[in-house]
Amino acid sequence: MLISPALQTLYADLVQQVLDRGEKPASVYTQKKGGVAFLYARRTVGAVRLDRYLGLSDDPATQSLAEAIRRAQDLARQGRKTVSLLKRAGIPAPTISLGRVLDAMSDAGLFSTGVLVGTAAYQCYSPIVGAALPAASLMTQDADFATATLAIAADDGEATMLDVLQRADASFRGVPGLKSLAPPSSFRSADGFRVDMLTPVFRRNDPDPMPLPKLKAGATPLQYLSWLIADPVPAVVLAASGILVRVPTPARFAVHKLIVAQRRRSGERLKRQKDLLQAKALMTVLAETDPEQLATALRSARAHGKDGWSEPIRKSLVELAI
User: Fold this and answer.
1) If we measure between CA atoms, which residue out of 193, 188, 217, 164 comes closest to residue 46?
2) pLDDT digits over 67-99, tens only?
């Protein structure tokens, strides 16, 4: 079912509004120390509140910064109304846990270089492609709604990955890997929510996990990931006042699913089924709304070679009878 042009416009306006905020929205307040007034900004991130020192209340630079933050807060209030409207209209929204995790990651700037992939990214595509994607393609097991996967190519961040995730849920801990001294590439909360870190393969001898010293984390190198996350597009997750993320282009996401479906192990039948369902759902819509984007992605992938690219694409298309 196609999403109405009015809703598509509303979503596009929300994306632009979030991009235009500049400063992070927050409540500005005054605190006096020793008779001197200082300005601070308090914002909610994930499940916690963070305070930011702005400066002396009578300093023109501080006042200018405070005004910019107030403008961002006004835009955020408008964003909350738009998010509510889109959710009531049936546009997919994340679970509370996923929304808090993505909010914490976005606030920490991880989507300036990172790209959301997996089912969490798939949930973002309905307003982007202009059609309601079938719910059956969202998951093959409930665990899909309790996972966030970040593809990251640069080790950026002002806080460690664990610090960021604990703003969403204080119970997050690193999941020990096979190498005892290696940094964790996965994190899990007490209620089972999992965050996985991925990175493109740069060289054949890349360590696994690839160390990300600034984040005090690691990332699992994966083939095809560099192609998947090339030229990502901005998206807004419908939680809070709108959470800005980046996702792969819908066509590359679909074609990537065609490839990885054929590389699943025999014990990953449910994941393989989900890959094919998501690919088919997106390709069906794109064939109607943006056939050139789909054709371009298929040509790009096939140009990389036969065995690892065009042949698995062919096999998946045969299975899907496309």
Assistant:
1) 164
2) 999 999 999 999 999 999 999 999 999 999 999
Interatomic CA distance for residues 116 and 46, integer angstroms: 17
User: Is the Cβ–Cβ distance between 109 and 158 less than 8 Å?
Assistant: yes
Q: Is the dihedral of CA 160, 162, 163, 167 positive or negative?
A: positive
HEC sequence for 175-207: CCCCCCCCCCCEEECCCCCEEEEEEECCCCCCC
Whether the CB-CB separation of 257 and 224 falls below 8 Å is answered with no
Alpha-helical segments (H) within 45-95: 60-88
Distance from first CA to last CA of the chain, Å, rounded? 19
What are the phi and psi torsion angles at 271 (to 5°)? Answer: -65, -40
Q: What is the pLDDT, as a whole number, of residue 2?
A: 86
Q: How far apart are CA 260 and CA 309, in angstroms?
A: 10
Cα–Cα distance for residue pair 155/214, rounded to 1 Å: 6
SS3 of residue 170 by DSSP: coil
DSSP labels for 4-20?
Answer: PHHHHHHHHHHHHHHHT
pLDDT(7) > 70 = yes
CA-based nearest residue to 192, from 148, 161, 249: 148
The C-alpha angle 131, 139, 19, rounded to 5 degrees, equals 50
Calpha distance 30→154 (Å, rounded)? 37
What is the average pLDDT value for the chain, to the nearest integer?
92
Determine the Cα–Cα distance for residues 259 and 308; give it in Å rounded to an integer.
8
